[in-house]
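Aggregate trends can hide what the representation actually does to any particular protein. This step matters because it turns folding into a mapping between discrete strings. For completeness, the protein is quoted in full, as a sequence line and a line of structure tokens:
=====
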Amino acid sequence: MAEDVNKLTDEEVGAIIQARYDSETRQPETEEQRKKARERMAKVNKLSYESLRKQGYYAEAELVGGHNGKR
């Protein structure tokens, strides 16, 4: 049986989570930076959610969320 090359490895998922954590710990200084950061994180969340769901990582997708802060 051929391996599905579109699936993320455990190491890749861990690297994604670590990168998100690292980026979230640096706080923006101005209101404009905070607004851009919120917009950027909403876009990243949506794209991550869609990508993880497409690849079958449903539980991980729910952790990321794709709801842009709204449920």
The chain is about 65% helix and 0% strand.
